[in-house]
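Intended use. Records like the one below are meant for learning the mapping from a protein sequence to its folded structure. Do not use them to infer anything beyond what is encoded.
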Amino acid sequence: MKTNVIFLLAFSFCIVSTGCKQQQQPAIEEQPAAVEVDLINDEFTEAQQEIEQTMSDIMQSIKDGDIDKLLSFHAYGPKFTEFINGAPRHGSKGNEEIERSTFEAVTEVIKMDANDMKIAVYGDVANVTFHSDFQLKFGEDLAVVNNQISLLFVKNREGAWKIVHEHHSPLRMGEE
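Structure written out for the chain above:
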């Protein structure tokens, strides 16, 4: 008789314990399915449109001669890098000095086209590549800038796209 009571108590405990565990954990079919994100192949069209607007704002700041606004599109810090025309890499300070001295000296923007632009978004990172067709006046001197340009953007905590890397090299027109 004692054995039956002990068995009945142990069996009851197992049933109650199992029932509690089932109530604590939702069934698998009740859990929301994870959304698959393919960073390589997904287009991220909303982010592409944000980058297009950012690029338009960058170009406008140059046309307006608003150097501080131009510089505000950069995420200056220890990770920022830039390559220009095969020169050694430099960081935030070098980029700011070059952009400030160059664009402060522009007296007129004749043409500022970003040809064959491609925007590739990888979540909160985007790479923008294009061929520049810029004609800038420095006093009476005309500078024609036909470069291959890559800009690497990262979306910051505030949701703004900021440049963290620039690469500029001459575009060889009509060459393979």
